[in-house]
Structures are given as structure tokens and as C-alpha cells.
Design goal:
With 268 residues, the protein is of the alpha+beta class. The chain has ten helices and nine strands. The two termini are 32 Å apart.
Length: 268
Amino acid sequence: MKAPDKSDGNPRRIRPAPEPRLSRSLEYGLALLESFSAARPAWQISELADVLETSRSTTHRYAQTLLVLERLEQDKHRRYRLAHLAGRIGITAIDTIRRETPAARKILEDLREQTGHTVSLGALEGTHAVYLQRFFSHGPGQYATDLELGVGAYVPLHCTAIGKAILASLSEPQQRATIASLTLEQEGPNTIKTKRALTAELTHIRTTGIATCDEEQAWGVRSIAAAIPHPGRSRPLAISVTVPAYHYTVKTMIATLGPHVKAAAERI
């Protein structure tokens, strides 16, 4: 099972034409940084130039600037890769959101103890949910089920319980706009294929307060989630429990874990 990756080696979309009020160099610099992923951690200048669709000399100038600024480093083959400082901004952003839920850590640890499975706190980030906290369990089958995703990992909204819980918590205008921006890529064997079906499921989630994933994110993975009430918070949040599919049917997962998940979300 392949762990999802936000960029997967593809940079952010570059605007087709420059805008006078925006910095084109900054746009390309960010695109260069976002070219790196767990699947593709190192690049030659020629490869980056092809991805960014810029000349090698221009790409080299951007890379050298980021090297001096310690956002990139070079390996023994002189390929560029991300340096530790490149992650500082993301870590700061996650820590800032975490401060809005000071009780979350203890509540999530309690939820892990109650359920015996990995629990997560996630926030809306564009067309994805980003994990802010993740407390792993180590029971049979759990490691493979967790897909090697840790804090800072991005997961799709349309095929994960935590993503659907967040979507269902949005106002109707926000929900429509977010769904319109989604691409319903096939991730697991049961991934929702149409936006009409997704919208219908979100209506059901609003009624029950519980979202589920039935091998939609990956084969062998089920999860259950609930949104955290977010008046006054900077963005929508949700918590989830991830389980090996062979441990529960969707029905038994809801009956067994649902009350614990909802109670934990309300406490946060």
C-alpha cells in the first residue's frame, strides 16, 4: 500500500502568465521546494528544470539560492534534497493550530487506550486534511493500516473518514466550493466515484455525526471519524480512529467505536 503524498513529485501549478502584483521568482521557488516528496526525495538540476519547465540556468539559480538559505542541501551525488530548515514553516503552522486544542493530546491518548487503535487529529488544508497529531497503536495489522502516515501528512478529503467528517462540518456554501475543487481520484477499491454520491454521504454524516471510510483510502483500511465543533477556531478539525478492515465491519465499527469517537470530539 502506497502512502499518499501531497505533491508526489509534482510541483504546485505555475500560473500560465506572470501578474505584475506577484513575484514570479517566489512562485517558482515555492514550486521547486514542492517538487520534493517521500517518493522522490532528490533531484538533479536537469530533472528539476524539466518539471518546472524553466531553463537549467534559471533552475540552478533558484536551487543555489535555496542552498545558501539552508532550505536545500546536496547529497554525495550533488543531487538536491530538502534540508531540515525547509520543514520549519510547516512545523510552526501545525504547532499554531495545535495551540487551539490544548486538551487534545490527553483526549486522543485516552481514545487510543479505549479503542486499541491509532487515533488522529486533522485539519482542513485546501482539498486535503493534514494530520496535526497522530498516536499510533501497535496491535496486529495496525502498522500496515496506518500507511506510514505521520504528523504533517496530507490525506484526501473524499476517501477518508477524517476528510469526510471535515467536509460535512462545513457550511453549505463552503462545502459546495470545496467539493467543486476536488478531483475524486481512485485511492482504494471502494473510493467514491461521483460528487453526487459524496454529497449524499455528507448529508448522512451531518445527521449521524459519524463519518466512515470502508476501504476507500486503501485496501484493508477502515476508519471512523467525527468533526470537532469549531466556532472561533481558525479552521475545521476532526478526529479519527483507523483500524485493520478485518477487525470490524463498518456496522460493528460504528457500534463499537462510534460512541467513543463522538465523545472525544465533543471533549476537544
